[in-house]
Here is the input.
Amino acid sequence: MIARLLIRPAFAWLRQPGLHAAVPILILLAIGFIGPLVLVAIFSFMPPRSFTLDGAPTIENYQTVVEQSFYLSLLRSFAFAAGTVVVLALVCYPVALGLAKLFGRYAGLLTLILVLPLFVSENVRLFGWVLFLLKGGGVLAGAAKAVFGLELADMLYSNTATLMGLCYVYLPFMLFPMVLGLSMVQRDVVEAASDLGASRWQIMREIELPLAMPGLVIGGLLTFVLSLGALTESKVLGGSKVIMIAADIESAFTFGQNWPLGSALSMLLLVLAGGLVLLVLRKLDLDAILKRR
Amino acid sequence: MTADQTEDAAPPILRLAGVTKTFGPIRAVDAVDLDIRDGEFFTIVGPSGSGKTTLLRMLAGLEKPSAGDILLRGERVNEVPANRRPTAMVFQSLALFQHKTVGQNIEFALKMRGIAQATRRARAHDLMTMLRLPHDYYSRPVTRISGGERQRVALARALASDPAILFFDEPLSAIDYRLRKQLEVELKDLHRETGKTFVYITHSLEEAMVMSDRIGIMRQGRLIQIGTPDEIYTRPLNKFVSEFMGEVNVLEVEQGGDGALHAREVARALKGPKLPDGATRGHLVIRPEALRFLGSGETADNVLEGELYNEYALGSRVQYHVKIGARMFVVERLREQRAAAAPGTTVTVGWNAADSIIVPD
Here is the structure.
């Protein structure tokens, strides 16, 4: 009797019907999601250029990352991701404020215009930018020359072009969570702040930003994580000048035929990005912020 | 209302001259003239859609008048935005800052003015004492206090910057009856304690009567009557105002050649005040408490027989519905004077001509 009482709480969760119902999706997640990650994790400790999982574990791949300055592209990726978040936050905030509070019935139309490009493949859109920015024959340079007689400096294949590409592609991921966040700010709360003497800037700092924070954080995290793993933008608009971590990983797996090195780079990216996201989410406690409303 | 303005020697703290607000073709507020005296509790009463909220928002600076002028202590403030007016508003939703503590809410106006933390804190504690908020609430999130306490925080927040005028946009409308009654009294006491000018908006004339020094009745964007609660009660300008007070008996009457009043629903000629010169029609208003049940031998100027339809206990008073002809009359008596008759029996109801009034449409 006593033994049963002691054993019961420990295994009670095994008998929960919710758990039984979740078994199929748990199996699917284990095979399709956790499995590959575990494989990558194990591969990152295999000898370089091996294609099996039975080699002697080694940290050689991680040493290579440091010695052959792969960490530079990792840093570059983080810098680009951070830059994208900053630029998008500044660009999207006024637009989001307009969409959430000011544009009224035109908000729907503007949303449609902003979403429409998403129906076109990202690659196609980026090559469109190549045509636009191309030196000499590009739309921008050509127009500047023909209309104003200006010779524009080369803009394609640069950090600026890459950053612009990242901002262009990930704009909706920042904008729409931001719109949601800002629409949670009640009009009368803003009016109350104004009535109590707050200037426009004070209202933004004291009322809008804190109350819209869940949306801002979600938007920021989405764009950060997405641009951290971005590949096409740097390849198409950055050319050979801008090598991001995703490009390194890709070439390690393909040209380099060095799966363990690619795995090590992937693991580093995963751990760093995941750690950052967890840190931010813990600090901001999204659940608590959302429940308060 | 023009009489009011000339009687008072002190200049009004707030003067409205032809204040109008149009939204497209709609005149939400239509040429309102009004003087609000320094230190008075002025209430604007009107049904929803009467433009009272729009009017208040213009006074607070949240809305700009389409025409007319708003003068604050003699200075035109039409274009002055809310954050630069020495006034504060208590919102219908209270509009507390949910992400801040009680203390941060109360101190907000002071913080915006760059006042030092220690001074702010002292002021917040003074206000919390005045509004009977426990001091350990200071660092509590506003989400974790009760509805009545939230009202007090909203009040303290509005009072913090020592505004010249306090505006109230129906802050008690979403509160249950008991608490509302209590807060009405507290608000009136607060008005007395602070000596500030309160401008209050409500759709309940009853609420306005309890608290106000003067009341303005608003209808379709216009202030149709301004007066003390007593004046509004005893001399309503028209049928709308008289019915707004609550349940009253209103009969459409015509004056015959003999001076008697004839109502379509009542067979007998009625005695009542004279209609204004030149008018042949009007509304006879008889308050429920002016009606009484007549026993044998008792008499009144007007005596009617009808069926006691039902009775409703209101605590200290009892309300009766009495069917006279095709018309249901509302009678209200104190509990001690309740009718002896049971529903379904025939009763005699009477009132004196002096207890009724005649109002135009």
Q: What stands out?
A: DSSP finds nine helices and 19 strands in chain B.
